[in-house]
Predict the 3D structure of the following.
Amino acid sequence: MNVKKEMYGWERVGAAVCCVGAVVFAARAEVRVDAQVPAGNIVCERIEGDRVAVHQELRGSSQWWFYWAFRACGAEGRTLTFDFTDGEPVGTRGPAVSIDRGLSWHWLNKDFTRKSFTYAFAPSDIEVWFAFGMVYTQRDWDRFIARYDGSPFLEKGQLTVTRKGRAVEKVRIGCLRVEPRFRVLLTARHHCCEMMASYALEGLVGGVLADDETGRWLRANVEFLVVPFVDKDGVEDGDQGKYRAPRDHNRDYDGTSVHVETAALREQVPAWAHGKLTMELDLHCPWIRGENNEWVYQVGNTETNLWAQQQAFGRLVEKVEPSALAYRQANDLPHGKAWNTSANYAQGLSAVRWAATQPGIVFAGSFEIPYATANGTEVNARSARLFGANLATAIRQYLAARKEP
C-alpha cells in the first residue's frame, strides 16, 4: 500500500512512526520516513538506531527501475544512513535534497554509495525531502507557466483526462494569430520518472516566449504544441513508468493505444498540424549511470534522412553558447549502436518513430538528458533550463535556414 496523500500543504503528524501498509515500526527520537511528498515513492522497511532500510516501489513496471522519493521528519540534529535493499538506485551525485518542501533542490554530492547515503540533519531540519532526482510535478509546471498568463502567444488547453481523472495539459505557444510557417510538437515524461526533462522543457518554452531575437523569430514563424506530462498519472503518483506493463507510454503508438494519453496525441496532433508538422522533439532521461548515460545525446532515428537532420540539428545545438550541459554532437547515439537497435522497439512504436510517419515531417528526434552528470558537469534545474533555452535557439537557426514548407 502506498502511504501517500494527494496534497500540497504538508503537516507534521505527531505520531513518531514509519508506516507501510499495516506494518508500524517504532522509531527512536520520533524519526518518520514516508512517501507523503509529491511523486512520493518509498517503502520504509525498518528504522534501527541511526540506520533506515528502504526500497523503491516498482508499481506497474515489469522490470527493475530506480526512481524513489520520500521525506524524513523528526531527525533534527541527527545523522542517519539510508540503506536501499533493492538494487543500486542511488545516482552519480547521491540523492537530490530539498529543505523547503520541494521548492528547490540540490545534490548531496557526498557521503553516498550506489546503495546508501548518509545525511546530517541540521537542528532546523524538521522535514527534509530526498529523491533520486529533482522532482518535478504539476505544481512546478503551474508555477512556471503562470508567469505567462495573459500572453497573446500562449493558449492553455487540455489534451485529455487520465483514467484517474487528472487533466493532461497541452499548451500552444508562438505564432497563434496567423497561419505559421512551421509547426513543432514538444513532449516530455512519456516515462514519468524522467523529471530532468521537464526542467529542460521549461527552458525551451521560456526561450520561445523570451523577448529576444530567438523568441521574436519563433513567435512570428512557428506554432508549438507542448504536452509536458504524457504519463500524467505516473508523474503525480510517483511511478517508475519505464517498462510499464503491458507497454509503457513510449511504446504505445501502434495498433490500438493502451493509454488514453497516447491515443489522444495520435488523434489530435494530425488535426492540429494540417500537414505542417515540421519538427517533433521528445525529451527523456537515460539509464541511471555509466557509458552513454552521463552525457546529453540524441537517439538516432532508424530513417537515414531523419538521422542526417538530427546530426545537422545537433551541430547547431553544440555551437550555441554557453554550451549548457557540455552537449557534444559526437555523443549522439546512431541506430544500431549500444541499446538503440531494432530489438529495443519490440514492445511497440515510440513517439518519435510515429512522428516520423506524419505528413511534412523533416525532423523527428529525442534528447536524453542525464539526471545528475553530463560530461562531468552537474545537471541541475538551472543547467537543464539553460540547455532547453539552447534548444530553442537551435530550433530557430534550423528552421530559419529552411525554405517554405
About this structure: The chain is about 20% helix and 25% strand.
